[in-house]
Amino acid sequence: MVVLGLDFGGTKIAAAVCDLAGNRLAEAVVDSLGEHGAQASLGHGIAVAHELLADAAPQATLAAVGVATFGIPYEDRVELAPAIDGWAQLEFGRELRTAFAGASIRMATDAKAAAYAEARWGSLVGQDPAVYLNLGTGLAAAVVTGGRVVAGSHGAAGEIGYNLRFPRDVALSADRRVTLEEMVSGLALQRRATQAGRQLTAAEVFAAGEQDVGLDELISAFVEELAFHVVNLAILVDPARIAVGGGMVRSWDRIEPRLAAALANAVPYPPELVLARFPHDAPLIGAIALAVDAARSGTGAGPSHGAPAADSESAADGHPITEQKSVTTLKG
After folding, report:
1. Are 243 and 275 in contact (CB under 8 A)?
2. What is the pLDDT of residues 138-197, one digit of tens each?
């Protein structure tokens, strides 16, 4: 028997086939094909997963699938999911159950899956409370307290991408205001560079900023606004530690000093600020952990918007899901 972890992101999809201890047998990272719409992107991820299963474990029974996604996943929809057009209208859970018939399915937001991985095996082990900050295509956070990832009453705890930016925004309807994620995220940085006449990805903006004064100023404003909201989050939660992951931490040398200074200057009891142990694949690792838990318990009904207790019995001692037996690379 094997389990499958899937991470649906705005720009990439990651999949891993694992044994019941969580050891990765094969994995793949492919483009999300988000420009082709939600159905194409979801279908692409499912097809990659089936190909991976056929290559890595052709005779094995698939016991469970853990899935991380941007937005809040339900059986018949995904809420707060603007990164790919039409993603909100997907019958997400139902499509997964059809695609992986007979397997238990567990779902979580990408940030909460990542927090689960970090709290269980990574940089947030034993930190209470703690915050995981995801700086990727989008922007989100997750709070860990009492060994659990906080879901919130609607599964939306930590969705700081929807933070207001100005006092006047309180009086505006959602369609008339600009949310934080529209200004502070990987997609936002790319879009702002385009508006400035530069066709660059977020990573390219950070790289080019070393030589370009205009882009350097754009990055400074970007990090400054991010720091403002991280400080307010830290004041609210009073975390022992904040771990930061996601694609943009490849530019951590530019982001970390300003965040650290802001926390030290403005938070009454400044938390420790660290790079996540799994900076680039924590959502996938969290998805694997969800699948392992589902296989062990034999259940998987309904979405798990947060994540189970981070101090629950692990699949094996230590953190086996960081190990790899073999890797299969698929193109797509």
Report:
1. yes
2. 899 999 998 899 999 999 999 999 999 999 999 999 889 999 999 999 989 999 888 888
Domain ranges for the chain, please list them.
Answer: 2-110+280-322, 123-275
pLDDT at residue number 299: 55
User: How far is the C-alpha of 287 from the C-alpha of 310, rounded, in Å?
Assistant: 13
Integer Cα distance of 274 and 3 in angstroms: 30
Lowest mean pLDDT among 21-25, 111-115, 279-283, 316-320: 316-320
The answer to which of 82-86, 231-235, 249-253 has the lowest mean pLDDT is 82-86
At 59, list the tokens.
């005779």
Residue 211: burial class (beta carbons within 10 Å; 0-12, 13-18, 19+): exposed
**CA angle, corner 214, sides to 211 and 216, nearest 5?**
60
Same fold for the pair 2-110+280-322 and 123-275: yes
Q: What is the CA radius of gyration of the chain?
A: 19
Do 120 and 101 contact (CB within 8 A), yes or no? no
Across the chain, where does the E strand assignment appear? 2-8, 12-18, 24-31, 62-69, 72-73, 78-79, 104-109, 130-135, 139-145, 148-149, 241-245, 272-275
DSSP of 284-301, one letter per residue?
Answer: HHHHHHHHHHHHHHT---
221 in Cβ contact with 252 (< 8 Å): no
Within 8 A by CB and 6+ apart from 301, the residues are 104
Give the separation between CA 199 and CA 194, rounded to whole angstroms: 5
Q: What are phi and psi of 4, to 5 degrees?
A: -130, 135
Q: Give exposure, 182-199, as e/b (b: 16+ Cβ within 10 Å).
A: bbbbbbbbbebbeeeebe
Look up the pTM and report it. 0.85
Determine the Cα–Cα distance for residues 17 and 4; give it in Å rounded to an integer. Answer: 5
Decide if 141 contacts 129 (C-beta within 8 A): no
CATH code that applies to domain 2-110+280-322: 3.30.420.40
The CATH topology of domain 123-275 is Nucleotidyltransferase; domain 5 (3.30.420)
